[in-house]
Amino acid sequence: MSADRKPESQPETRRKRLEREYAAREAKALAMGGPDRLARRADAGVLHARSRVDGLLDPDSFIETGLFGVSASRPEDRDRSAADGKIAGFGRIDGREVAVVSNDFTVMGASSSSTNGRKIAHAKRVATQRGLPLIFLGESSGARMPDHMGSRGMGTLLGNDPTQYVRLRETPWASATLGLSYGSSSWYAVLSDFCVIRKGAVLAVSSSLLASLAIGETVDPQELGGWKLHAEVTGFADMVVDSDEEALAAIRQFLSYLPSHCNEAPPERSVPEGAGAGMADIIDLLPEKRTQVYDVRKIIRTIVDKDSFFELKPRFGKVGVTGLSRIGGRTVGIIANNPLVKGGALDTEACEKITHFLVLCDSFNIPVVLFVDTPGFAIGTDAERKRAPGKIMNFMHALQMFSMPKISVILRKSYGQAYLNMGGGRNSDEVAAWPTAEVSFMDPTFAVKVVHGLAPGDDGFDDAFATMSKDSEVWDMAGAYAVQSVIEPHATRDYLIRMLEVHRLRLTGDIGQHLLRAWPTSY
Q: Quick one: 180 and 34 in the same domain?
């Protein structure tokens, strides 16, 4: 053998062997539940867990944790539990780091187990410690049985993480319900700051089969936890979409308004061309008669940066409007009364919706602008049965604890306690009003009925109405300095840009006190 020729080295042989073994294990993990199950999803037009991650994150940015995890409780399940049914890791959205957990329903129904529970805990821990938004892509059959059955299963698998369901809102959480989602998949959805649901998906405590067994009658999955229920009745759904792709796009858009963590200000964007173009004619969107209805969202979209209004819970508590937006390139929260629904009278659902939104904005350093046009709170037996006094005071409590700037703009009516809940008095840092504003304790028509027992058309009604309407104009409030500014409608956008700059939290770097950070997420 020539002195220049080297024999084949043992390390190279070992390297090849290790590479083959690694490639085989990697392929098995990436195969998920197998080609047949993946094909059925593709035929149904539904993305699988890994394609959802790919669609959510910037290209080539995902780094997985726990790829080789398998069932730890039952050895016989190890060969069929690729990645143990949950894909976890880290990636980027618009260049910012995020943590993500995507449930793989093709592997044992993405059921919860000790291994994948540790993967979720790790993603949560890293997100909290390093300041990363956390995203849950939900689809799960619930707890894995028989792993959880018996005292041993319960004692070893449940309750060993005392922070599992704690939300102190150190970082934003977003979730998508993209199929049958039971157990922990539902828990993380309702704990999130943003929950988008795809039509056809189900979010519930447990399956319709189990619910049917429990109550002794057949339960329809959509009635149990479908998108209509959560968009219109429970309010858990912030948005409803038709496809997985739309859900992933919604999460990306939601996070674009928020900081990565609670100790930084939201990101700023350039002001789009055409922003504010409709301000000159904005008064035409407000009917002259104070009893005539209109859609306040048209006014909102005219004032904020072009195409920046991202409405939350549009099907729930519709008399109140909440959403994220930008004014002058900076993120703001929008709260408004919508006279198109119930004449703008705030009901209990709207109170819950606005309270939830105030918690979000306070936790992540987002100032709010309130557009006011309300005759008060909806009253009656139904309101009382829905615990209206408690909901109104929760709303008031959250508003007064809110530690970011608040600016109220009274467009038209503002009566009674709702005047305070919508930022009147000293409940906002600035209160401005359009010349069309009218403020009083009660609608003059109702006041005449209560005090004098007169209705429109009765003798003496007009004189009594004039008395009850006295001193209700905006100039009366301005004269007493009960509003800080009377602004012309067309100047509203410029006023807000300037006043939001005045009220920036310069001493703390635009970081609020986060007094609402531990407020319960669900109602």
A: yes
Quote the pTM value: 0.89
Q: Tell me the C-alpha distance between 492 and 189, whole Å.
A: 37
Q: Please list the helix, strand and coil fractions of the chain in percent, rounded to the nearest 5, in that order.
A: 40, 20, 40
Instruction: State the average pLDDT for the chain.
Output: 88
492-502 helix and 296-303 helix, angle to the nearest 10 degrees: 60
* pLDDT tens for each residue of 324-348: 999 999 999 999 999 999 999 999 9
What CA–CA distance (Å, rounded) separates 499 from 325?
Answer: 16
Same domain for 406 and 386? yes
For 389-432, write each residue's pLDDT tens digit. Answer: 899 999 999 999 999 999 999 999 998 888 899 999 899 999 99
Q: Are residues 126 and 172 in the same domain?
A: yes
Residue pair 229/223 in contact (Cβ under 8 Å)? The answer is yes
Structure tokens at 518: 């531990």
- Dump strand ranges (E) for 40-127: 63-65, 86-93, 96-103
For residues 372 and 432, membership in a common domain is answered with yes
Q: Tell me which amino acid residue 321 is.
A: V
**Residue 354: which of 329, 331, 371 has the closest Cα?**
371
Burial of residue 504 (CB within 10 Å: 0-12, 13-18, 19+) is: middle
Is the pLDDT at 384 greater than 90, yes or no? no
Shared-domain flag, residues 424 and 447: no
Q: In 168-275, which ranges are continuous DSSP H helix?
A: 184-191, 208-215, 221-225, 227-232, 244-256
DSSP state of 345: -
Give yes or no: residues 459 and 399 share one domain. no
Lowest mean pLDDT among 139-143, 331-335, 489-493, 497-501: 139-143
How far apart (Å, rounded) are the C-alpha atoms in residues 321 and 343?
13
Quote the DSSP letter at residue 258: S
* Cβ contacts of 288 within 8 Å, gap of 6 or more: none
Burial 428-459 (b: 16+ CB within 10 A, else e): bbbbbbbebbbbbebbbbebbbeebebeeeee
Host domain of residue 459: 443-471
Q: Is 269 contained in some domain?
A: no
**CATH number for the domain including 303?**
3.90.226.10
- CA angle 78/82/85 to nearest 5° reads 105
Task: Give the chain's domain count.
Answer: 3
Instruction: State the first-to-last Cα distance of the chain, in angstroms, to the nearest integer.
Output: 81
- Could you say which DSSP state residue 171 is in? S
Q: What are phi and psi of 67, to 5 degrees?
A: -55, -40
Statement to judge: residues 333 and 424 lie in one domain = yes
